[in-house]
Specification:
Number of strands: 5
Strand order of the largest sheet: 1-5-3-4-2
Radius of gyration: 17 Å
Structural class: alpha/beta
Distance between the termini: 50 Å
Largest sheet: 5 strands, mixed
Number of helices: 6
Helix content: 40-55%
Order of helices and strands: EEHEEHEHHHH
Number of domains: 2
CATH architecture of the largest domain: Alpha-Beta Complex
């Protein structure tokens, strides 16, 4: 294995949004991904060993590497399966756009804890100054998720421990 650094990851206009094979070692997990629990990774790793990764992950350029926007479960399972590369779609995204896509992707999952999802809503609101009404309109959360979002803010601000 060469110790040379790979060429910068920045996508050109020609390949932006294109799917390509990227070394797993060049991908770092996003610190803004709300999902903390990943079930059945061994089962997914077995499927990946047998059939490969069937759906590309989404990454964005991060210096000479890439940040994983979504597809963390596939990414982790590909590592477990012993793969060296993974199919990935590369897109230039702002921090707010990456977080918004993570929220949209995670809202489709039943195994994402509502409080994990609420943390993402809170970050989009507080860090990126997106109004709660705009978050609700874009992501169309269920009423209970909005309520949990409000509770999450109160817990964070008030440091209440249950």
């Amino acid at each position: 294995m060469s110790s040379k650094k790979k060429a910068p990851a920045a996508a050109t206009e020609a390949d932006a949004g294109a799917t390509r094979s990227i070394p797993l070692e060049q991908i770092v997990e996003s610190p803004t991904n709300q999902r903390r629990t990943f079930r059945d990774l061994d089962e997914l790793a077995d499927t990946i060993r047998a059939h490969g990764v069937l759906q590309a992950v989404l990454v964005r350029p991060l210096g000479a590497d890439f940040e994983l926007v979504f597809g963390a479960r596939r990414f982790r399972a590909a590592k477990l399966a012993g793969l060296s590369h993974i199919p990935a779609t590369v897109r230039e995204l702002s921090d707010a756009a990456a977080l918004e896509l993570q929220l949209i992707e995670n809202s489709k999952r039943d195994d994402v804890h509502p409080l994990e999802e609420a943390d993402g809503y809170r970050e989009l609101h507080e860090r990126h100054h997106v109004p709660i009404e705009e978050i609700a309109a874009k992501l169309n959360p269920f009423t209970c998720e909005v309520t949990i979002f409000d509770a999450s803010v109160a817990v964070t601000v008030g440091e209440v421990v249950s």
